[in-house]
UniProtKB/TrEMBL annotation:
Subunit structure: Interacts with NEDD4 and NEDD4L.
Organism listed in the record: Capra hircus (Goat)
SMART domains: CBS
Reaction catalyzed: 2 chloride(in) + H(+)(out) = 2 chloride(out) + H(+)(in)
Protein name as it appears in the record: Chloride channel protein
GO molecular function: antiporter activity; ATP binding; voltage-gated chloride channel activity
UniProt feature coiled coil, ranges: none
The CBS domain, residue ranges: 586-650, 682-742
Key words of the record: Antiport, ATP-binding, CBS domain, Cell membrane, Chloride, Endosome, Golgi apparatus, Ion transport, Membrane, Nucleotide-binding, Repeat, Transmembrane, Transmembrane helix, Transport, Ubl conjugation
Entry-linked PANTHER family: CHLORIDE CHANNEL PROTEIN, H(+)_CL(-) EXCHANGE TRANSPORTER 5
Compartment(s) where it occurs, according to its Swiss-Prot or TrEMBL record: Cell membrane; Endosome membrane; Golgi apparatus membrane; Membrane
Length: 746
């Protein structure tokens, strides 16, 4: 009896912390598609089923876009309101944030548009005054108290309900998209807790952003919605195509940059990205951006808080300071990665990792205490970037725009370069202190047990450095316009230098230095700012920062965290340049015990169960006999266990002495002997094999491009050994003088 004629639930699925077999998954999907296509010619109902199957991918993208956009809008509105809650409350409606509260007021002037009687600070509510030292202390105390409360709630919820909701999530998503299974990482609990705690973490004032975690949130939406469609629920490779598109939707709503999101998914997170996925990613990103625009979370018809428009053209000479910003971004990126990884390693290997709540509260307290006295650290990082990107106009009341003779306009109505006033000098000092605080505190914040993105803090560091340099260049051009470098293009009283543009270029340089993005980064930046004419400065800064950072360390922050966690991620960008052979890497090595194999027709159920219980391997090669070692196929451990358990329940007479056959035809069973068990249906008859003399660079290439779990090594048709993905990664680590035991999973 062949009980495997009906598919068994569980066969073909994978254990937690294991890698999927891309080749098998793609093959199964092709078989499924072929069957549907053939049946569609038989009846109208089958044709409708075929059309709905083809359309289901687009429907899924629509749902992912709608859900991601809605959640992003909810997160933006909630975070804005809770950030302002630290400073005060709106008496006309507790649900209004500071800006919306004063919009509705009839007692507000344009110059003091952030001051209105409806908005009360905590000192006004508690001691009825906003003046004096005691009022300042009350506001200070309430600011720190709210920050600690938000941070405590965030870390407690993560610790109790969803430990996977911490961090940015991008390193793990990169690993999952490469074929690794982390059960629960993209589940409903993780989605719910990450959405709530992301709002709390951003509102606490810590040096973190919501952009990276929004990619995780969108991928959770994609994974949960996949369960509504058979095609994606039952096939891990197809599901990863959906997750690639969901990642694009996540960046689309994080930055209001749909095209940048698609390129980010392609350049940074995706492992397998066919053309079909490109179109679907584009559609998902479009729907997500449209949904967020409909919600209009910032009330300005823009998708991001720091949308700006510059009008002054840049000059060729300015490429020099732009490239200097690129060098700064590369240096900061390399410094940040090294120090942050060292701190995260310390957290993993010492007692510090056992007290996540204490760590978060200490870092929050330090951040809040140091942030409150400085107006540029007190506001949310997004608002800070918005102010730094801003080009000073006639009506700006910011200290950054406090120039002397500020109301003199040129003929065209533009503001000319002019001498800096006291406000600008005061702002420069405060920004310099903000830069130091952001650089130091971000190192300790990223990687804590709360949702924490890195895009916004990195952009803030670069934007501050860029604005400082921009104001310096502006003053240099004003006071020394007769210098050779200025006199050909910058006449006195002209509007030559745009400090906000320098801030934008600096932000791109620092983000590029940390993440090593190039194409997607430039597209995201010009989608953010609407400045197509500034593509060249952005490209120059992004490329310079990547070159400088790569010269000091090859890994971006996400790859460094993947390696720190020991995930089996085979980097497609790295070249394998060593002259080793498959026989140098395969198991078993010389003097090791022989390779554990199953024979095709001579082992009993008890023999196989003994091998399963005594080993931890993910699968076993099947050979003709132990003497010949001629390869028949490969069988997965999980499939074996499920099939034997199922046979014991459903097939009469299967006992420990029953013979297991992996052959097509089993011989007739003599009377009074237990029935045989045929398991040919779970046998992979075309496992990938290489010879023992195959160069390892070819083996590594095969693993990368086909997404293999394992590869068998033969010599003249005889089985010699096996190479798993873990073996390949350990070998690469060994060749790079790194610790091979850091690779924890297969």
């Amino acid at each position: 009896m062949d009980f495997l004629e009906e598919p068994i639930p569980g066969v073909g699925t994978y254990d937690d912390f294991n890698t999927i077999d891309w080749v098998r998954e793609k093959s199964r999907d092709r078989d499924r598609h072929r069957e549907i296509t053939n049946k569609s010619k038989e009846s109208t109902w089958a044709l409708i089923h075929s059309v709905s199957d083809a359309f289901s991918g687009w429907l899924l993208m629509l749902l992912i876009g709608l859900l991601s956009g809605s959640l992003a809008g909810l997160i933006d509105i909630s975070a804005h309101w809770m950030t302002d809650l630290k400073e005060g409350i709106c008496t006309s409606g507790i649900w209004f944030n500071h800006e919306h509260c004063c919009w509705n007021s009839n007692h507000v002037t344009f110059e003091n548009r952030d001051k209105c009687p409806e908005w009360n600070s905590w000192s006004q509510l508690i001691i009825s005054t906003n003046e004096g030292a005691f009022a300042y202390i009350v506001n200070y105390f309430m600011y720190v108290l709210w920050a600690l409360l938000f941070a405590f709630l965030a870390v407690s919820l993560v610790k109790v309900f969803a430990p996977y909701a911490c961090g940015s999530g991008i390193p793990e998503i990169k690993t999952i998209l490469s074929g690794f299974i982390i059960r629960g990482y993209l589940g409903k609990w993780t989605l719910m807790i990450k959405t709530i705690t992301l709002v709390l973490a951003v509102s606490s004032g810590l040096s973190l952003g919501k952009e990276g975690p929004l990619v995780h949130v969108a991928c959770c939406c994609g994974n949960i919605l996949c369960h509504c469609f058979n095609k994606y629920r039952k096939n891990e490779a197809k599901r990863r195509e959906v997750l690639s598109a969901a990642a694009a939707a996540g960046v689309s709503v994080a930055f209001g940059a749909p095209i940048g999101g698609v390129l980010f998914s392609l350049e940074e997170v995706s492992y397998y990205f066919p053309l079909k996925t490109l179109w679907r990613s584009f559609f998902a990103a479009l729907v997500a951006a449209f949904t967020l625009r409909s919600i209009n979370p910032f009330g300005n018809s823009r998708l991001v808080l720091f949308y700006v428009e510059f009008h002054t053209p840049w000059h060729l000479f300015e490429l020099v300071p732009f490239i200097m910003l690129g060098i700064f971004g590369g240096l900061w990126g390399a410094l940040f990665i090294r120090t942050n990884i060292a701190w995260c390693r310390k957290r993993k290997t010492t007692q510090l990792g056992k007290y996540p709540v204490v760590e978060v509260l200490v870092v929050t307290a330090i951040t809040a205490i140091l942030a409150f006295p400085n107006e540029y650290t007190r506001v949310s990082t997004s608002e800070l970037i918005s102010e730094l990107f801003n080009d000073c106009g006639l009506l700006d009341s910011s200290k950054l725009c406090d120039y002397k003779n500020r109301f003199n306009t040129s003929k065209a109505g533009e503001l000319p370069d002019r001498p800096a006033g006291e406000g600008v000098y005061s702002a420069m000092w405060q920004l310099a202190l903000t830069l130091i605080l952001k650089i130091v505190i971000t190192i300790f914040t990223f990687g804590m047990k709360i949702p924490s993105g890195l895009f916004i803090p990195s952009m803030a560091v670069g934007a501050i450095a860029g604005r400082l340099l921009g104001v310096g260049m502006e003053q240099l051009a004003y006071y020394h316009h007769d210098w050779a470098i200025f006199n050909s293009w910058c006449s006195q009283g002209a509007d030559c230098i745009t400090p906000g543009l320098y801030a934008m270029v600096g932000a791109a340089a620092c983000l590029g230095g940390v993440t090593r993005m190039t194409v997607s980064l430039v597209v995201i930046m010009f989608e953010l700012t609407g400045g197509l004419e500034y593509i060249v400065p952005l490209m120059a800064a992004a490329m310079t920062s990547k070159w400088v950072a790569d010269a000091l360390g090859r890994e971006g922050i996400y790859d460094a965290h993947i390696r720190l966690n020991g995930y089996p991620f085979l980097e497609a960008k790295e070249e394998f340049a060593h002259k080793t052979l498959a026989m140098d890497v395969m198991k078993p090595r010389r003097n090791d015990p022989l390779l554990t194999v199953l024979t095709q027709d001579s082992m009993t159920v008890e023999d196989v169960e003994t091998i399963i219980s005594e080993t931890t391997y993910s699968g076993f090669p099947v050979v003709v006999s132990r003497e010949s070692q001629r390869l028949v196929g490969f069988v997965l451990r999980r499939d074996l266990i499920i099939s034997i358990e199922n046979a014991r329940k459903k097939q009469d007479g299967v006992v420990s002495t029953s013979i297991i056959y992996f052959t097509e035809h089993s011989p007739p069973v003599p009377p009074y002997t237990p029935p045989t068990l045929k398991l040919r249906n779970i046998l992979d008859l075309s496992p990938f094999t290489v010879t023992d003399l195959t160069p390892m660079e070819i083996v590594v290439d095969i693993f990368r491009k086909l997404g293999l779990r394992q590869c068998l090594v033969t010599h003249n048709g005889r089985l010699l050994g096996i190479i798993t993905k873990k073996d390949v990664l350990k070998h690469i680590a060994q060749m790079a003088n790194q610790d091979p035991d850091s690779i924890l999973f297969n």
